[in-house]
């Protein structure tokens, strides 16, 4: 299947929510990856602990179908939701429902002229702050230093989040989740540096 490489998140079609919200039974922990693509990270998380629910937000509709077909075929609790994550987290999650939020290698574009397309901004931070429960982990990784730094400045200047590594400090503990996203695996195998930040949702 031919998958589109990029879509423009500012396009009018993405302003409205067209996704399907998965069931999230009370008592099951919920983990969220924003921009999940093929959801390798979530499938591997589900293999480690199949009792939780793994939700991937993704703006490329073809990938959403691909992930959901694989999940249903293999019977794992992974659900991709077609959405523009900056706008639609409220439509997907009850407040305080999410235990962990992952943003792995968020932006395929990092040119200056595409700055306004960046995924992690104050609007996304507000969606995350509402969806995340107190103490929830917010973990961001990128192989582009400017993107990681931009993301840090968004969370650092927002009192709803606390930097687990100390103010204005990158997370140096590696990826503590025991699984890797496709981009992360690729970056590590090709020797690219990976910049990480870890925040907690303040109470
Ligand atoms: C560079 S890829 C990384 C994919 C995966 N997280 C990984 O690490 O392998 C970024 C993904 O985020 C998706 N994306 C970008 N902006 C988005 C948005 N506003 N809402 C939802 N998904 C978005 C893209 O379609 C793409 O699949």
Task: Give an overview of the whole structure.
With 203 residues, the protein is an alpha/beta fold. It has a single domain (29-201), classed as Vaccinia Virus protein VP39 (Rossmann fold, 3-Layer(aba) Sandwich). Helices cover 30% and strands 22% of the residues. Strands 3-2-1-4-5-7-6 form a 7-stranded mixed β-sheet, sandwiched between helices. Helix 2 links the parallel strand 2 (53-58) and strand 3. Residues 9, 35-37, 57-60, 84-86, 104-106, 108, 119, 181-184 line the site of S-adenosylmethionine (SAM).
Note the topology.
Blueprint: E1 30-34, H1 40-48, E2 53-58, H2 61-74, E3 78-82, H3 85-92, E4 98-104, H4 122-131, E5 132-142, H5 145-156, E6 161-163, H6 182-189, E7 195-201
Helix pairs in contact: 3-4
This protein binds S-adenosylmethionine.
